[in-house]
Records
---
Amino acid sequence: MRNVMVVDSHTAGEPTRVVLEGGPDLGSGSLPERLNVFRERFDWFRSAVVNEPRGSDVLVGALLCAPVDPACSAGVIFFNNVSYLGMCGHGTIGLIATLAHLGHIQPGRHLIETPVGIVTTELHEDGRVTVHNIPSYRYASQVHLLIEGHGSVTGDIAWGGNWFFLVEDHKQELSLERVEQLTDFAWRIRQALERNGITGANDALIDHIELFAPGSPGSHSRNFVLCPGKAYDRSPCGTGTSAKLACLAESAKLAPGEVWIQESILGSRFEASYHREGDAIYPHITGEAFVTMEARLIMNERDPFWKGIGH
Ligand code: PYC
């Protein structure tokens, strides 16, 4: 029997489950090394925490780790229903809100180590959190794709801590009522990318698809983001918004310091901007998370589904 202490939160509607105690021993290597150990030896733990019957496809897990760099307040490895995430914007906001809820941190700046680099976070007095993300960039623009049952679309490939294909010319209405059709459409885009061998840098799989449309008053844009395991992001997606900022910056459509309000398919919002250092674009994403539950997960080896359904 294994007990795992977790705190759940949601950021703009998208849930995060922070694992505080009871996680696997990943050793004391760098965060990328520990991620490899997690993936190779403890993938069952990922599934047990986020998949049914304890979780659901939409849940993002965040394994709290001791940081290597003593300047960091914490290390974290994010994971989902099928795999692992380099970085996670909504998850980092959820992590900071969770650490504040537990009284582990106070308003101010906190460095967080992730497998793709250190991010600076800022917990504001009013509870909002700003994530100063890792450098983001557009890798390719105006990539043409033929989508089964639809015709062609054009999109950009960008990195914001995960790999995204960003599409504006999709002719889809982005509304919550159409989530099933949007999921099906975005999944066909993902399949077309794979079929055509289109990847991010170093042959990286592009596993997030992002569709854009004009936003409601007070926002600049609405998005629909399909995550790697086919769940859609309820939030505007922190890494997806970072990828969008990189594209806007490259096209000279948004100046450094200018505010971009990104709305999700639910209508929830992130406030975003960026600064440049040489060629690098550094995104800043602000949002708010609310703690929803403190819990102890019970993993009983007699339970046929103790590792999560599908594992
Ligand atoms: O906020 O970066 C994000 C994110 C990635 C996947 C789900 N949310």
Note: The pocket of pyrrole-2-carboxylate is lined by residues 14, 60, 85, 88-90, 162, 227, 233, 235, 237-239 (CB under 6 Å).
---
Amino acid sequence: KEKGFIFDLDGVIVDTAKFHFLAWKKAAAEFNFELTPELNEKLKGVSRIDSLNKILKWANASVTNEKFAELSSDKNEDYLSYVQKMTKKDILPGVYNVLSNLKEDNYPMALGSASKNASTILEKVGLLDMFDSIVDGNSVRKAKPDPEVFLIAAKNLKIPPKKCIVFEDSEAGITAANNAGMISVGIGNKKHLGHADYMFDNFNEITFDFLKQLQPK
Ligand code: BG6
Ligand code: MG
């Protein structure tokens, strides 16, 4: 195949962005900081450690290394308590159709996520078998907006970066895709994704014909 498709996970395939928000909100409340939805946009696509560092900076707070580790592990436990309850119903609108159309046509597909919980979540919602390669928070060194995660995915798919299409819901993720020289498709909140090559509210708006005719920049 001449093209490869790379999907972010949280907020693109599954509706987990709301769980990350709830869990970070709770963690931030521990040092009396109120995490607003607006600030939360800046955490989307950002690794767990970078997220906590950002929140601490906004809160003007500093903690010991021990407390840092505790906050981040408590946040993850809280997050996983929501994940445990996930089912196929948490797959975002239109996603399953797009994935299965691409799969049927043998397009190479990869996951490109910052999350260390990616495989757990894909398994929960029954999508683990959809992807030829899973690149997640366990396999990258540099977090989005660095393009590393998407470049590794392209390499695994054996498709040149220029011929890869990335779906992202985050500001940092679109920047990462652009930095990788890929075609970026923003999903969701238009306000933060103005730098994407294409923009859609959700996957119900994306036709298979559109995906087939997409050409490198
Ligand atoms: C990204 C999310 O996909 O993964 C971020 O958008 C999250 O909100 C990051 O912080 C890391 O996820 P995890 O599951 O490893 O804490
Ligand atoms: Mg995301």
Note: The pocket of 6-O-phosphono-beta-D-glucopyranose (ligand 1) is lined by residues 9-11, 20, 43-48, 51, 76, 113-117, 137, 170 (CB under 6 Å).
